[in-house]
Design a protein that fits this description.
mitochondrion; 20 helices; mainly alpha; two-stranded antiparallel sheet; NADH4_N; electron transport
């Protein structure tokens, strides 16, 4: 509760160094929220707010990514004085709405904050996007998510009317009879599957990513996709939906989507589009692990949400640094950057191997756990998993090689240089991916209650 009131005070503050104050406060809040990781397994209550081990790791991720969004936008917004105060206020408001979503126990407030998080994101895309096509991207984003979440609202109202309560724990700890067809409950999950996004409902994501500014891409990849994963896990856990007859269909779509988006990534020339499509494959695999109903699938899904949030956000940051220097996102125009800046080349290599799920990053642990759960569900999935692993390595290596090797283009020269804040930005993405390996056993406490 104190963190929420602090965010409201930050929104009202006026100062000549407002940007720096907000940046430091977000990073301090992320360090303060580390205490939630050591919370009890049944969580902590505070009026309508409830934080347990499942939501605490996502609250921490939200604060961390929000602070890094301000750091990444320093050149494009603060340095160019591009509506600086309004931008940082929207970032803070978005962070507050997302954190309230993760901490709600009332289903109606849960839905309210799920929908309200769209508005600041749309404002980021429309206000600070790069090209006129951002209007179409904003429209896609709004229509897909609002249309898909209407059945969720109707379902929540029906559940509340039947059981005279909207509190999540009433369903989790009491054996209420849900007099609703499983088809309708499946329609409620549809809103979260579009937000993930599930393959075949993913068209809004590459469009929104390509047209969004760097902060918009970071929050979309780092946090907003996790709203879908968190909602899916919370609903399956709360309503004990362990015998859905359409979960096989969802799993097949998720895995097939992972293979298809990996193939699309191999043929991409736009670097932001490539990273966006790789997000669809990763989150589809996470949804498949969750729908398998195995413990290692759920734990791997949470770990995938955390690791993918940092890794994908870091890749978008590095793509944006190239865009600011070269003014192009085409992989055909990059090349030979290893000869110009070898430290950035090392960072690119670490981000790429993290994205493909290689040691020493926690992405490896999450992918192993998800693959185990999918194999236990059906041995037939083993071929799809092998193709996904191969294609994941392929498109990440293609991206790395096409950027770093080859001959230098004539329109950039040795003047290409990074500054210390850009190095700091990348390191703040990489260090948590390495440090979380120390506390990997944290996940085993999540669903033991």
């Amino acid at each position: 509760m104190g963190l929420v009131f602090s965010l409201i005070l930050l929104l009202m503050m006026k100062s000549s160094v407002l940007w720096e104050i907000r940046l430091w406060c977000m990073m301090m809040f992320s360090l303060l929220s580390l205490k939630y990781l050591s919370g009890e397994s049944w969580g902590m209550y505070n009026y309508y707010m409830y934080i347990d081990i499942l939501s605490s790791i996502l609250v921490l991720l939200s604060f961390w990514i929000s602070g890094l969004m301000l750091l990444a936008s320093y050149k494009s917004v603060k340095y160019n004085n591009n509506k600086m105060v309004l931008f940082s206020s929207i970032v803070l408001m978005l962070c507050m709405l997302i954190i309230l979503f993760f901490m709600m126990t009332s289903l109606l407030l849960f839905y309210l904050f799920f929908e309200m998080s769209l508005l600041p994101t749309i404002m980021l895309i429309l206000g600070w996007g790069y090209q006129p096509e951002r209007l179409q991207a904003g429209l896609y984003f709004m229509l897909y998510t609002v249309f898909a979440s209407l059945p969720l609202l109707l379902g929540i109202l029906m559940v509340g009317m039947i059981n005279s309560s909207y509190m999540m724990d009433m369903f989790k700890y009491n054996s209420f009879s849900l007099n609703m067809s499983f088809l309708w409950l499946g329609m409620m999950l549809f809103a979260f599957l579009v937000k993930l996004p599930l393959y075949s409902m993913h068209l809004w994501l590459p469009k929104a990513h390509v047209e969004a500014p760097i902060a918009g891409s970071m929050v979309l990849a780092g946090v907003l996709l996790k709203l879908g994963g968190y909602g899916l896990m919370r609903f399956l856990y709360m309503f004990s939906l362990m015998n859905l007859y359409f979960d096989e269909l969802i799993m097949v779509i998720c895995l097939w989507g992972g293979v298809m988006t990996s193939m699309i990534c191999v043929g991409q020339s736009d670097i932001k589009s490539l990273i966006a499509y790789s997000s669809i494959g990763h989150m589809g695999m996470m949804a498949g692990g969750v729908m398998s109903k195995f413990m290692c699938g759920w734990e791997g899904g949470i770990l995938m949400m955390f690791s993918h949030g940092l890794c994908s956000s870091g890749l978008f940051c590095m793509g944006n640094l190239l865009y600011e220097k070269i003014n192009s996102r085409s992989l055909f125009l990059y090349g030979g950057l290893l000869n110009i800046n070898s430290i950035t080349s090392l960072f690119w290599f670490m981000m790429c191997i993290s994205n493909m799920g290689a040691p020493p990053f926690i992405n490896l642990i999450s992918e192993i756990m998800l693959f185990m759960s999918l194999y236990m569900y059906s041995w037939l999935f083993i071929m799809i998993i092998l193709i996904m692993v191969f294609m994941g390595g392929l498109y990440n290596l293609i991206m790395y090689v096409s950027i770093q090797f080859g001959s230098n283009m004539s329109f950039y020269n040795a003047m290409y240089s990074e500054n210390s804040s850009e190095y700091l930005l990348i390191l703040l993405h990489l260090i948590p991916l390495l440090l979380f390996m120390v506390n990997i056993s944290y996940l085993t406490k999540i669903f033991m209650i």
